[in-house]
Write a structure and sequence with these properties.
Layout: H1 5-18, H2 30-37, H3 41-53, E1 57-60, E2 64-67, H4 72-96, H5 99-121, H6 129-149, H7 153-173, H8 178-196, H9 200-227
Antiparallel strand pairs: 1-2
Helix pairs in contact: 1-3, 2-3, 4-6, 4-7, 4-8, 4-9, 5-6, 5-8, 6-7, 8-9
Length: 228
């Protein structure tokens, strides 16, 4: 069944947020977007209003709709939610995950490790833009698989938007250097190893360490950006 027009416009705009073509700080021009999407401005306004209610866009008086930028406080909020929910999800996933979930986790980690190894073998110290998107997709899919493996839909709903917003804000963070890539692969491998052993406490602790590391990197980036 074909989706209603406002829903299609919302998905189209959210895709642009996710792929970085509408990076943080971008002012959303309703008329221009309506031309690009081949619709009137009404569904565009409706979609932007929904994105604002979801926290992806700010409606600023006399300026209009602007893609939300990451601040220290909002970063802390997002990662606190992720730490609380995902450590618990990892604990439960260790008890409840299936062989299919484990295979999916292995595949996502393999994608991340392949991109890291290819980058290192080329002698580059960071991922190319297209590879970065693939790496981030695999990273987020790894985490979502754990949420699904916990077999508690409320957990997945609680953290889903934080994951999406984190992905949008990667446009601010730029490329991943090989040091961070290596650490990301190592930490995901530690989470997977604990899940394979059905060791809930170890999986939760590995997840907590990973999320705290991600927060540290994000705050480091934000502080460096303020110094520029």
């Amino acid at each position: 069944m074909k989706q209603p027009l406002p829903k299609r416009v919302h998905l189209a705009l959210r895709t642009r947020l996710l792929d970085g073509s509408l990076p943080p700080g971008t002012r959303l021009d309703y008329k221009q977007l309506s031309v690009e999407l081949g619709v009137s401005t009404t569904p565009v306004r409706e979609a932007v209003t929904q994105l604002a209610s979801e926290g992806f866009v700010e409606l600023i008086p006399r300026l209009g709709a602007v893609v939300r930028s990451l601040t220290r406080n909002s970063a802390m909020e997002f990662y606190e939610v992720r730490e609380a929910v995902e450590t618990f999800a990892a604990m439960k996933a260790a008890e409840r995950l299936s062989a299919r979930h484990l295979e999916q986790l292995r595949q996502h980690l393999a994608t991340m490790e392949r991109l890291f190894n290819e980058t290192r073998e080329r002698g580059d110290n960071h991922l190319a833009t297209s590879d970065l998107h693939t790496f981030l997709d695999a990273d987020i899919s790894f985490h979502k698989t754990i949420l699904l493996a916990a077999r508690n839909p409320a957990l997945a709903r609680t953290v889903e938007e934080s994951h999406i917003q984190s992905r949008i804000f990667y446009a601010d963070r730029g490329v991943h250097d090989t040091i961070r890539l290596s650490l990301a692969c190592k930490q995901h491998a530690e989470i997977l190893a604990a899940l394979e052993k059905r060791d809930g406490p170890a999986a939760a602790e590995a997840m907590r360490t990973h999320i705290q590391t991600s927060l540290d990197f994000t705050l480091e980036h934000l502080e460096a950006a303020l110094e520029v």
